[in-house]
Amino acid sequence: MLETLATAASQALTLNNFFGAALGIFLGSLLGAIPGLNGTMAIALLIPVTYTWSPLFAIAMLVGCWKGSVYGGSISAVLLNAPGTPESAATALDGYPLTKQGKAGKALKMALFASVIGALFSDALLMVASPPIAAMALMFGPAELAMLILFALVVVAGTGAKSQLKGLISTALGMLLATVGLDPITTQQRFTFGSIDLDAGIGLLAMLIGLLVMSEVLVQMEEGWKDAHAEVAVRSDDPDASRVTWPELKGSLGTIFRSSLLGSFCGALPGVGSITAAFMGYDQARRLSKHPERFGKGELNGVAAPEAANNAVCGAGLIPLVTLGIPGALSAAVIMGAFMIHGLAPGPMLMMEHPETVYGLFMLLILSDFFMLVIPLPLMKLGQWVISVPRAYLFPVILALCVIGAFGTHQNLFDVKVMVFFGVVGYLLKKWELSPAALLIAFILGPMAEVYLRQALKISGGDPAIFVTKPLAALFLALAVGAIVWTTLRNRRGKKIGLAGEASSKADISDNQVE
Amino acid sequence: MIANRKDFKLGLGLVAFCLLLLLLVIPYQVGPLTEADALMPVLVTCFIMLLSILLTIQAVRRAPKPGEHAEKAAPEHRSPWWSILIVIIIMAAYAWLLDLTGFVLTSLGAMIALFLVFGVRRWFPITAITLGTLGGLYLCFDVILGAPLPVGTLVENFLE
Question: Which one of A139, A228, A470, B7 has the lowest number of neighbouring Cβ atoms within 10 Å?
């Protein structure tokens, strides 16, 4: 073990990789701060650039970008009451009132400290929890893995779309798209329509960029957007107005740790995501506060709690990805795409076959948390300028990046056509209130599900009873059925989680942002 | 009486799509429905059909909840449907012309057209952002990453 850690450290802790993590945080903070852009879009556009780089450098940069974008969203939330990312909506509730009181600097710094502590907590959890979960997952056979994927898909479908039914349809469409190309077992051509370009299946990255980025531009065109207008923030002569004092930070530590724990829990569960985590964090801080009446009027704990919670989702969100090969959230699914493009297949075998890479990544993640303390600081000053860039100037650049991004990975013009096709498909999916996120996650998990399903059926001689006679497979199947029944009943009774609803209205969440 | 027309049309459309897949596409593009290769496509298609039928029935019985299709906050910039269509056409042309006219010319034309569709009329920002983006992409892909961007057959012939 120590030898592995030493090898991992020697591979990971290089100047090059430090630069990668720092660059990711910088770009993520910058892009996350711009309302209308989000971390997932940023990661999707950055993946093609990383194609020729080492896996550690590339993945550290992309995860750094994810973390940076979550914090970046709070800059516009605090300064303009316009959350850059949906998970920052809860931060605006107390962050913006603080800005109006001339304490924007204090709010942004508290958000930063809470984000860093939340991220550190969750990365430590990732490092500690991953090896035993991966070891346990190695004991799973094809039947258990097939049912585990089914359970994950059902959970993701239940949270990503407007209704459970539409979520399931999106998931099934993703599974269907995953069957395009050569059969994973017999190599028989399926749905290729005679095109050699489709033999290897639909290009993941091209599809991802089209579904998440191009379609978002089209949706924002249709629904309209509001450009953020920089307002001159109220200035205060009090030197404490732009910094967090030690007593203030000490007073918030309890809230930050509780929110970090909550955020990590939400991150580790597939489909829950950072929006729910942020609002749950905010809610627990308000309920446990001695002064709940101060919330919504500029309470520092109201900034710390959601920021700690939504940043804690990132590291913990990698637990199901690294250990089971199941992305629990859309950003994790995009990161999974990056793993695959770099020749690493997330799942229990990843820790067996590439332990140095995995532990190296963990080390870089923890290191990137410390970078987060320094790198976004200049953005706080640049904040008002950065977030005021009109989207009419931004969108043509983003669309050009989509085209070159789709082309860049395989140097294949067919991928550009695939990207444009899925851009239109993504736009239509959103119009019909289907979930591109669920479709994408199902597309990624589809081939694995098919292989495990067919292997299990082969073992049992074609008898589907294997899925109920094996205890763990039966448990996952029961959980999947239970998740469908529970969500259906919940929807029928109209018992929707109020906070999640608030989140969607506050942050103008588009479908691809829902995790 | 149809309570939710949008879902009703979607449900029926998906049922028709699934029937097309099961009757025409899968037998010719995959193989007989009973073969192992066709197991997953058939299983998933039947599942989509079942869900689509449920969606259609639900659409007949249930009207959208109040506020379900409500407009979002009044935006400053809202584009008419035809401008979305124009963006899609520009993007399709961008994708199909890259092979012919190459990265520089196609991107130049597409970006200027996109700026105009998005309502930017000031030529200085259009020129500066377009040239800056193209220069940056060329530098990043061609020079730094060593991944050459398409030159285009027409441009290649012209240069020869």
Answer: A139
Query: How many Cα neighbours within 13 Å face the side chain of A62?
Result: 31
Interface test with B, best of A341, A420, A505 (most B CBs within 10 A): A420
Subunit contact A165:B51, Cβ cutoff 8 A: yes
What torsion do the CA atoms of B108, B111, B117, B120 make, to the nearest 10 degrees? -100
Task: Round to whole Å and give the CA distance between A273 and B124.
Answer: 42
DSSP 8-state secondary structure symbol assigned to residue A225: B
Q: In this predicted structure, what is the pLDDT of residue B49?
A: 94
Task: Answer yes or no: are the C-beta atoms of A207 and A418 closer than 8 Å.
Answer: yes
B65: number of Cβ within 10 Å: 12
- Interface pTM, i.e. ipTM: 0.90
Q: Give the number of A-B residue pairs with CB atoms closer than 8 Å.
A: 172
For tokens 């969606």, the residue is B55
Residue A406 and residue A24: Cα distance in Å, rounded? 20
Q: Which residue has the tokens 């107005």?
A: A241
Kindly report the nearest CA distance between residue B154 and chain A, in angstroms.
16
Q: How close does chain B come to A408, measured CA to CA in Å?
A: 7
Provide the 8-state DSSP code for A299: -
Residue A490: what pLDDT? 74
The pLDDT mean for chain A works out to 81
Token pair for A1 = 């073990």
Residue bearing the bigger pLDDT, A492 or B50: B50
Short-list A433, A432, A407, A408, CA closest to A420: A407
- Tell me the shortest Cα–Cα distance from A502 to chain B, in angstroms: 13
Per DSSP, A34 falls in state S
> Most confidently modeled of A125-139, A145-159, B102-116?
B102-116
Q: Which helix (H) or strand (E) holds A190?
A: strand A189-190
**How much is the pTM?**
0.81
Nearest to A223 among B30, B47, B75 (CB): B75
Q: Assess contact for A169 and B55: CB atoms under 8 A.
A: yes
Given B76, B120, B134, which is nearest A393 (Cβ)? Answer: B120
Tell me the nearest-neighbour CA distance from B133 into chain A, angstroms.
7
Asked if A484 and A164 count as a contact pair (C-beta separation under 8 A), the reply is yes
Q: Is it the case that residue A510 has pLDDT exceeding 50?
A: no
Query: Chain B partners of A453 at a C-beta cutoff of 8 Å?
Result: 39-40
> Would you call B140 and A49 a contact, using CB atoms and an 8 Å cutoff?
yes
Task: Identify the pLDDT of residue B124.
Answer: 92
